[in-house]
Design a protein that fits this description.
Elements: E1 4-9, E2 14-17, H1 19-25, H2 29-32, H3 37-40, H4 46-56, E3 63-70, E4 76-87, E5 93-102, H5 104-121, E6 126-131, E7 136-139, H6 141-147, H7 151-154, H8 159-162, H9 171-181, E8 183-191, E9 197-209, E10 212-221, H10 223-245, E11 249-253, E12 259-262, H11 264-269, H12 289-300, E13 305-314, E14 317-328, E15 337-344, H13 346-357, H14 359-384, H15 390-434, H16 440-449, H17 451-482, E16 491-493, H18 495-505, E17 520-524, E18 531-533, H19 535-563, E19 573-581, E20 584-591, H20 598-601, H21 621-632, E21 636-642, E22 646-654
Parallel strand pairs: 17-19
Antiparallel strand pairs: 1-2, 1-5, 3-4, 4-5, 6-7, 6-10, 8-9, 9-10, 11-12, 11-15, 13-14, 14-15, 16-18, 19-20, 20-22, 21-22
Helix pairs in contact: 15-17, 18-19, 19-21
């Protein structure tokens, strides 16, 4: 627009003003002509008057000044003053010519540009301007800060120097991609001046200016965000792991009755991925109306916990679950969330019902078990003495043969004798019925021999004889087995059960005698397959080793008690360890008993060698045990011991017996 102009004299009073001046400042000519400039514009900055005075005295030739002013309508305007002196014909400064021009739009644009530049320079994110060849042409303070470069150093670099994922070879392709899309967001890794690499999020925009192509990249350090995300993911994984470790069906449900998550057991129960449940409404599977109603009731009430048994249909089968529910609040103003843990109690309920219905049956089985344990005790006692020597076996075999014949004879004839006696007694009864008045001599004899008692007691006597004969036959059969005439068959068994049954038989031996503390049995069972063996003979070996360990522990306690040399209380212990070694299993039985010197434990497998003072010990137990392990089972029986520390026996037998062992 045309400039507004006015002419002032030496006293800064108006001599003339252009129409544009009067129109612009909304003044009349009569209002300003002859009036001082500072009366018309009383709010000029002090610098304006100072500069004007210098012009009037010729110190400066002219000046320009920009500042805001209040317009007649009350709005704030930016005005640009141009002031210069005017001269008389003699060349004397007679006053000033002033012009004004409104520059409000230009100033606002300038302020916006300055504000934009200030915001860019001080932005919380790093900002780069990049040319087509990847050269950095601008970097703000944050860019310099988190890359540890000065601005001048950064402007010597290309984007490829700091972006680890953007090589010079892929830069043209990347540039074209941004150009085609106008903007692009991606994650990358930047490298600092010191070589530290950290993750960033990049938002890049394509721009054209004055015929040149640029990219403006806004970069944010996401190291903390990555760490938070990682921590959250780890926390979520840990939480999921905890839920998965719970041996039941776990779900947590929001107040709007939707699943927030489930554990793997619940998902596996329905053969569905865990993600399938997220945000689904309770009951979407339609498998347990009882559970659905429980959830609805639980959220409808103020109770924080509740327990209920519900039925659910899983893969066509009805199962019963004990559901435990617990509410929790994230904060006071939030709606509750609830966790539901379901434990399958179907088998437990069935077992309880079976126990209630079959109590008498189990009592009978308990009695049978007690009898079986007694038989096992008896059998164990016999097994310990089995095969004491081959000569003893032959002698026993001969004796059993000699006893068996007369016993069979007696047993067979007792049956006949019982029949004969019954016949005779019947005959006597018939005689007494038909001849109720015998001779006095017969009456006297009947009274002397107590015929009535004989008639009552004789069948009992013969029955007892029959029972005795049967008992003798059982003894003969046991002797035949003891002597090896009845060979045990190979079976595939659980070794741990054999160990446990042997321990059960010896249970009372583990209880301390006198002041001796109880023996602590520690089991460290490995995962063993079923093993082919002669279980009875193997149990005999276990029995022998356990018995030796008990004796060693009692002997150590007796020595310590007598000599009083150990201030610490003695804690007797037997440690049983099992493991698989290739095609063999190893069973180690160790005690912390009296122990043995090398000279002694080097001979313990010799027949008739013993270290026990008892007259009942003849030194055959370990010799027989080694024979059973080595010869019968193609295994190894070894021992190592340290005096005062204890002894360890290691039994190694193959998992599968070879053909030769089966013969």
């Amino acid at each position: 627009m045309p400039a507004a102009m006015a002419m002032l004299d030496q006293e800064m009073c108006y001599l003339a003003a252009s129409g544009m001046w009067l129109q612009y400042w909304q003044l009349e000519s009569s209002e300003i002509i002859g009036n001082p400039h500072y009366h018309i514009f009383p709010n000029l900055p002090s610098s304006w008057q100072g500069q004007a005075e210098k012009c009037l005295v010729g110190t400066i030739g002219q000046f320009e000044l920009e500042h805001p002013m209040t317009a007649p309508n009350g709005s704030i305007l930016w005005v640009k003053w141009k002031v210069k002196p005017w001269y008389t014909d003699e060349g004397i400064i007679a006053g000033l010519i002033i012009s004004t021009e409104e520059i409000t739009p230009e100033k606002q644009l300038q302020q916006q540009l300055e504000l934009t530049q200030l915001a860019t320079d001080n932005a919380a994110d790093a900002i780069f301007w990049i040319t087509f060849d990847g050269q950095l042409c601008y970097a703000n303070k944050m860019a310099c800060s988190f890359l540890d470069y000065s601005e001048s150093e950064l402007l010597q670099l290309t984007i490829c120097d700091i972006d680890q994922e953007l090589s010079r070879e892929v830069l043209p392709t990347h540039w074209q991609q941004v150009k085609n899309q106008n903007s692009l967001r991606f994650e990358s890794n930047y490298c600092t001046k010191e070589g530290r690499i950290f993750p960033v999020e990049v938002n890049v925009n394509y721009l054209e200016f004055n015929g040149n192509e640029y990219q403006c990249a806004i970069v944010r350090d996401i190291s903390s965000q990555k760490k938070i995300n990682l921590d959250l993911r780890e926390a979520k994984e840990q939480f999921q792991a905890v839920l998965n470790a719970v041996p039941g069906l776990v779900s947590w449900i929001s107040a709007d009755l939707r699943y927030l998550g489930v554990n793997k057991h619940l998902a596996n129960a329905y053969n569905l991925p865990i993600e399938t449940f997220i945000n689904q409404e309770v009951g979407f599977l339609q498998t347990s109306p009882e559970f659905n109603n429980f959830v609805y009731d639980f959220f409808a009430k103020a109770d924080l916990t509740n327990v209920r048994e519900v039925k659910a249909n899983l893969r066509g089968k009805t199962r019963i679950y004990l559901i435990v529910a617990q509410k929790y609040y994230r904060h006071k103003a939030s709606l509750p969330t609830a966790v539901f843990v379901g434990l399958d109690i179907t088998e437990r309920l069935a077992m309880e019902a079976s126990l209630r219905d079959s109590q008498e049956k189990f009592c009978q089985q308990a009695n049978q078990l007690e009898q079986t344990l007694q038989k096992l005790n008896s059998a164990t006692t016999k097994l310990i003495q089995k095969h004491k020597t081959s000569i003893l076996g032959q002698v026993v075999a001969g004796v059993t043969h000699e006893i068996n014949n007369p016993v069979n004879f007696i047993s067979g004839n007792i049956g006949l004798a019982i029949n004969y006696v019954q016949d005779l007694l019947c005959l006597i009864d018939m005689y007494q019925q038909n001849y109720p008045h015998p001779l006095p001599e017969i009456d006297s004899e009947i009274e002397d021999i107590e015929l009535d008692f004989i008639k009552e007691d004789l069948p009992k006597l013969l029955g007892s004889m029959m029972i005795g004969a049967e008992r003798i036959r059982d003894v003969v059969r046991s002797l035949r087995q003891f002597s090896g005439l009845e060979v045990e068959s190979i079976k595939t068994v659980n070794i741990h059960k054999g160990l446990d049954s042997t321990l059960l038989i010896l249970q009372n031996h583990f209880q301390g005698k006198g002041n001796c503390p109880d023996i602590n049995v520690v089991k460290k069972y490995g995962s063993l397959p079923y093993v082919e063996c002669y279980p009875g003979e193997l149990n005999q070996v276990f029995m022998q080793i356990f018995t030796n360990a008990i004796d060693a522990l009692e002997e150590k306690y007796l020595n310590l008690s007598t000599k009083k040399i150990n201030p610490q209380p003695f804690e007797p212990e037997i440690l049983i360890t099992t493991e698989v070694k290739d095609d063999y299993i190893a069973i180690a039985i160790a005690d912390n008993g009296i122990g043995m010197v090398e000279e002694v434990y080097g001979r313990i497998f010799e027949p008739l060698f013993t270290t026990k003072k008892s007259k009942n010990s003849i030194g055959l137990g370990l010799s027989i045990s080694q024979e059973l392990i080595v010869d019968k089972h193609q295994g190894k029986l070894s021992c190592k011991s340290l005096i005062g520390k204890g002894t360890e026996f290691v039994i190694e037998i193959p998992i599968k017996l070879s053909h030769s062992s089966r013969q």
